[in-house]
Amino acid sequence: MNAEIKRYIDRQIAHLARKMRNIVARGVVAMVDDGKKMQGLQISLLDGELIDNAERPQQYGFSAHPQKGAECFVVFAGANREHPLVLSVDDRRYRFKGGEEGEVIIYSDEGDAIHLKRGNIVEIKTKHLVIKAEDDALIESKAITLRGEESITLETPSLTAGGPGGAAGQAQITGDLATSGDMTAAGISLKNHLTTNVQPGGGVSGPPQGGGS
């Protein structure tokens, strides 16, 4: 191999090595544009280079808006610095730690979390939970417990309770029951029912009309 061919090969290898070094970079998120069809990031690379409009493809059905200062990993298609793609963004400041093997956690920097735990336990942690179903909602389980440390409020123009498939059910209340309106049991009004065999003085009247003995 003559010297000229060797120099040519060396130049090509050096050029290829530079391109290889330019394929992957590590940086920090400086700005996020979440209004585009594909989220765009402005990122600052570790060597001080500032990259604008780096596209960040995300998994279908999932979207996240990273905060300034989050770390990212970027690839440049064809080693072209004009075509950056952000493959991964993580933020060690807020990352949920301590999960067990096999667990999945969706979380935010404010401490909200949906935690798929071992043992088929799903735990949701937040301060305010809002579930919106435009037409209807169904919760099915063998047993359901609602626990309010201060109160539980139901806001609805109509409330129906019964057994499965519309069968008769039973309600038990421990404590007092107060209502601002009337109550009806077996067709008999609590406020407006009439009694039978009314006795004078301290006598005991008969059962309400229409009711049992």
Describe the structure.
The structure is a single chain. This protein is mainly β. Among the domains are: 3-90, OB fold (Dihydrolipoamide Acetyltransferase, E2P) (Beta Barrel), CATH 2.40.50.140; 94-139, no CATH class. It contains one helix and ten strands, in the order αββββββββββ. The protein has one helix at residues 3-23, and strands at 24-33, 40-45, 50-55, 71-76, 84-90, 104-107, 113-117, 121-125, 184-185, 188-189. A hairpin with a 3-residue loop joins β7 and β8 (121-125). The longest helix has 21 residues, at 3-23. The radius of gyration is 34 Å and the shape is rod-shaped. The model has no long low-confidence stretch (mean pLDDT 86).
Mean pLDDT across the residues is 86
Largest sheet: 5 strands, antiparallel
Order of neighbouring strands in the sheet with most strands: 3-2-1-4-5
Query: What is the count of β-strands?
Result: 10
Name the helicity range: under 10%
Briefly, what CATH class of the domain at 3-90? Mainly Beta
- SSE string, helices as H and strands as E: HEEEEEEEEEE
**CATH-defined architecture of the domain at 3-90:** Beta Barrel
Proportion of strand residues: 15-25%
The number of helices is 1
The separation of the N and C termini measures 117 Å
